Amino acid sequence: MINLKTVSGILIPMFLLSACSPQEITESESSQEIPTDAEISTDAEMPTNPSISMDEDMPTDAEIRAAERAPLPSKLSARASKLSGNVVNMNANQDGINGGNNGLNSGGSQLHGNVTGISTKETEKGVEVNMSSDVLFDFDKADLKPDATAVLQQAAAIINEQGTGKITITGHTDSKGEEDYNIKLSVARAQSVKDWLAKNGVTKDMEVEGKGESLPIADNENADGSDNPEGRAQNRRVEIIIAKQKSTQ
Question: Where exactly are the transmembrane stretches of this chain (predicted)?
Fold first, then answer.
C-alpha cells in the first residue's frame, strides 16, 4: 500500500516527498497566489459613469403610458397645427408690410410711414399728393424750410413709384392778400418744390402752376364771417398730381 500526502491540493506519494527538502515543499505550497479583498469586486463595486443619471431626463410612468396611448396622427396633427400657426403669423406680418405699400386713400401718408404734413389720395385725374405749405414754407415765403425735407422725400418716393403719367405741381394759398400776389406766391412755391425734387432723384418731367386762392378745399371764414384759421391752413398747400397713364388701346 502506497502512502500519499496532499500538497497544495495534490496527492503525492510519500516516497517522492522524501526526496524533496522541507523548504522546497513549503515554497511549492506558498507559490499559489491568493487574491486579496481589494482585488475582489462585486457588482455593487463596479465603476459607474458620473455623467450618466438613471433618473435624469427619464419620462415618468404616466408620461410613458400617455405616449403609448396617443395615436400617431394626433401627434402629427399637433405638430402641423403649430407649424401652420407660424405660417399664419408670417403671412399676417407680410400683409402688414404690403398694406403699407398698397392702396391710396386720404391718409396716404401711410404709404411710406407717418409723416406730418403730407397726404395722398386717388382721384379721377390720378394720384394726388397734398403737402401743407405751413410745413414747407415760412409765412409769406417761397424758400423751403429745413424741416420740409421729410415731407419732400416722401413725395419723391411716391412719384418714383406711382409716376407713370404727366406730373403737375400746383401751389395754392388762402384768401388773405391780393389775388395777383397770391398767384405769384403760389407759383414760386410750386417751383421751389419742383427744383428740390429734380435735385433729389426725381427724373420725370414736371410742370408747375399756381392757382392762388381760387381753389380752396376748406372755408377761409366761418358762417358768421369770423376768421377760420384751420380752414385757411388747409388751403395753403402744394399739390402734386400724378396723372393716370393713358390706355394705348
Answer: none
